């Protein structure tokens, strides 16, 4: 089943976006992974993130592995998913470490995992290395019925390298490709989202993350082919405002 919205869904959303305002009950909220990945995030900030996610019916709460158990406890009966990152933010850990992190996050209650690829391998054109790295994590996540998103860090890659990384993710069985960590240079651009969509086709999700701070930003990403938005500005986005948050 395709993760990309149907043509009728897209037409409905465009009608709802008339005058630049999209009400939260139309489905924009269901695109958003409500995110807090700062290293100094406090417990109270995480709890607030969870409460906002439940209130606005965001797709998931995305946090560092330390907070997965807390988030899972807060949102488990609400319909909001628990998402965690691994190999974050540089991707410069061994595959064995990524597998260990993924296994721990899933055990703590993560429904979805966003992993950072081996960026050096992507820049070197080593597709086989990328596939092995992603596949090892995919096996752990999928064994528990979870979803794997693969962060390719577009700001550090050429277009050719972005295509290679996306192809590796598809070959390894990833469920999504994701633009950015938000911590290594630029974030998502509509051009990168469109390139990733063309590369992976209609049956793999594309997540835009990093720098999506407003309704207009989100609309541009979805129109380019994104099926998920990673942002710390979810409340501002669905309220038709612009956030000054960094991620």
From TrEMBL:
<keyword id="KW-0456">Lyase</keyword>
<protein>
    <recommendedName>
        <fullName>Deoxyribose-phosphate aldolase</fullName>
        <ecNumber>4.1.2.4</ecNumber>
    </recommendedName>
</protein>
<feature type="active site" description="Proton donor/acceptor">
    <location>
        <position position="207"/>
    </location>
</feature>
<feature type="active site" description="Schiff-base intermediate with acetaldehyde">
    <location>
        <position position="178"/>
    </location>
</feature>
<dbReference type="Pfam" id="PF01791">
    <property type="entry name" value="DeoC"/>
</dbReference>
<dbReference type="GO" id="GO:0006018">
    <property type="term" value="P:2-deoxyribose 1-phosphate catabolic process"/>
</dbReference>
<dbReference type="InterPro" id="IPR002915">
    <property type="entry name" value="DeoC/FbaB/LacD_aldolase"/>
</dbReference>
<dbReference type="InterPro" id="IPR011343">
    <property type="entry name" value="DeoC"/>
</dbReference>
<comment type="function">
    <text>Catalyzes a reversible aldol reaction between acetaldehyde and D-glyceraldehyde 3-phosphate to generate 2-deoxy-D-ribose 5-phosphate.</text>
</comment>
<dbReference type="GO" id="GO:0005737">
    <property type="term" value="C:cytoplasm"/>
</dbReference>
<dbReference type="GO" id="GO:0016052">
    <property type="term" value="P:carbohydrate catabolic process"/>
</dbReference>
<keyword id="KW-0963">Cytoplasm</keyword>
<dbReference type="InterPro" id="IPR028581">
    <property type="entry name" value="DeoC_typeI"/>
</dbReference>
<comment type="pathway">
    <text>Carbohydrate degradation; 2-deoxy-D-ribose 1-phosphate degradation; D-glyceraldehyde 3-phosphate and acetaldehyde from 2-deoxy-alpha-D-ribose 1-phosphate: step 2/2.</text>
</comment>
<comment type="similarity">
    <text>Belongs to the DeoC/FbaB aldolase family. DeoC type 1 subfamily.</text>
</comment>
<feature type="active site" description="Proton donor/acceptor">
    <location>
        <position position="114"/>
    </location>
</feature>
<keyword id="KW-0704">Schiff base</keyword>
<dbReference type="InterPro" id="IPR013785">
    <property type="entry name" value="Aldolase_TIM"/>
</dbReference>
<dbReference type="GO" id="GO:0009264">
    <property type="term" value="P:deoxyribonucleotide catabolic process"/>
</dbReference>
<dbReference type="GO" id="GO:0004139">
    <property type="term" value="F:deoxyribose-phosphate aldolase activity"/>
</dbReference>
């Amino acid at each position: 089943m395709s993760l990309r919205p149907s043509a009728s869904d897209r037409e409905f959303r465009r009608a709802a976006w008339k005058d630049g305002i999209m009400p939260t009950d139309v489905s924009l909220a269901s695109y958003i992974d409500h995110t807090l990945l700062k290293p100094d995030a406090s417990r109270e900030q995480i709890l607030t993130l969870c409460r906002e996610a439940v209130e606005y019916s965001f797709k998931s709460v995305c946090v560092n592995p330390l907070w997965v158990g807390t988030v899972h406890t807060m949102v488990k009966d609400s319909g909001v998913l628990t998402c965690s990152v691994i190999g974050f933010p540089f991707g410069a850990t061994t595959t064995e470490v990524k597998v260990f992190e993924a296994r721990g996050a899933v055990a703590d209650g993560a429904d979805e995992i966003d992993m950072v690829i081996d960026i050096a391998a992507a820049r070197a054109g080593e597709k086989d290395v990328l596939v092995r790295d992603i596949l090892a994590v995919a096996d752990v996540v999928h064994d528990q019925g979870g979803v794997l998103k693969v962060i390719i860090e577009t700001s550090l890659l050429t277009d050719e390298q972005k295509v290679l990384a996306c192809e590796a993710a598809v070959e390894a069985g990833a469920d999504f490709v994701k633009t950015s960590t938000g911590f290594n240079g630029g974030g998502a651009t509509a051009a990168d989202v469109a390139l990733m969509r063309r590369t992976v086709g209609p049956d793999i999700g594309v997540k835009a993350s990093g720098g999506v701070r407003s309704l207009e930003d989100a609309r541009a990403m979805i129109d380019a082919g994104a099926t998920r938005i990673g942002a710390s500005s979810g409340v501002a986005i669905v309220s038709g405002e612009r956030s000054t948050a960094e991620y």
